[in-house]
Amino acid sequence: MLFGEAQDYSTACRLLGTCMEAGVNFFDSAEMYPVPQRAETQGRSEDFLGRWMQQHRRDKVLIATKAAGPSCQMTWLRGGPVALDPANIRQAIDGSLARLRTDYIDLYQLHWPDR
């Protein structure tokens, strides 16, 4: 889900609603979305999804999101994470939970794990 760059919040809400009406209730995002990655829009996809979920029953929606791994390109994201160590993962999770406005994430994944 790449909301926040090419799609505004109202478009995201319309698309998410259409998905739910069609029986799709699993939504995947990431702390770095939308792409292309920019400091000004980082986390916006999670934010849009979180705002939309406030109007829907959380137990009817499955949320997946991701922590970004080491990247010298995204220095604005946790200082350009140098590793996916426990501290960075915890910080990424806390940020995602806040943007998603929820107290749990159904599936947590790693973008660009340490190689």
Structure, described:
There is one protein chain. The protein has 115 residues and is of the alpha/beta class. The chain is 33% helix and 13% strand. It has three helices and three strands; from the N terminus they run αβαβαβ. A three-stranded parallel sheet has the order 1-2-3, covered by helices on one side. Helix 2 packs across helix 3 (86-100). The longest helix is centred in the last third of the chain and has 15 residues, at 86-100. The radius of gyration is 14 Å and the shape is globular. The model has no long low-confidence stretch (mean pLDDT 93).
Produce the secondary structure layout:
Elements: H1 9-21, E1 26-28, H2 44-53, E2 62-68, H3 86-100, E3 107-111
Parallel strand pairs: 1-2, 2-3
N-to-C series of helices and strands: HEHEHE
Helical region count?
3
- Name the poorly predicted regions: none
Estimate percent helicity. Answer: 25-40%
What structural class do the secondary elements suggest? alpha/beta
Radius of gyration: 14 Å
The N- and C-terminal alpha carbons lie at a distance of 25 Å
Total beta strand runs:
3
Largest β sheet strand count, sense and barrel closure: 3 strands, parallel
| Binned strand content | 5-15%
Give the mean pLDDT.
93
Major beta sheet, strand line-up: 1-2-3
The geometry reads as globular
